[in-house]
Prior knowledge:
By secondary structure, the chain is mostly helical. The protein has one domain. The chain has 12 helices and no strands.
Amino acid sequence: MAPARLIRTGWLNRRLLIELVRRDVRVRFAGARVGLLWSLLNPLVQLISYGAIFLYFYAAPRTTSHAELIGSLFCGLWPWWAFQEAVTRGTSALVEQASLLRRLPVPPELCVTASVTASFFLQMIGFAIFLLASLLLGFAAANATWLLLPGIALLGWALSLGLALALAPINLMVRDTAYIVAAAMTIWFFASPVLYTVAALSPAVARLADLNPMAGLIGLYRYAVLGANPPSLLGLTALASRGSFLCPKAKPRS
């Protein structure tokens, strides 16, 4: 689906879209005692775990301080979690909302958009809370590049939505797609500079890594938050070119 048409559909059905996002969040945490807190606790536990591994078991270079290492991991892991959860849940959105789509004339792309938006929004809340905590504890210093973060987050949302819109109709016809996506995400995680930086790679491997759109996205987060070098032009081009929206029309099957 063309971006302009998707935006127009979302705007004309904005109240329905907001309600679908709310419904997605309510259903996801139904029955949980701490509710939304789980969306923050699980990423935090993983961040602490990876931090401990690199700080105490697999020693980081002596030139890298603890704060720099945790900051680099934070800027890699949280955008990745937002992307992974948004894509995996968006891929299954049409299957999960099949009964709703059969009963009501809801544009299918709205269900995918709502699922992606809910997942991405929850993770970005965690990102903002951790960033604020780092600022208050003195682990990070606010600077003008932080103003770029909303735009960078929007790029990540667009990348996630574009991929989910392309995969959701396929998953509707071939239910194995969701499992393939989950497995592919594991490979994509280690192929992305989440636990490392592109600068640490050899020039040849770095050029190959720059073709990964997540390299450009994570590089932008590290540039905005940590003041690291911005991603290469190739990385930015890969990120921009893969943010297009594709949503083949498909009707939910019974």
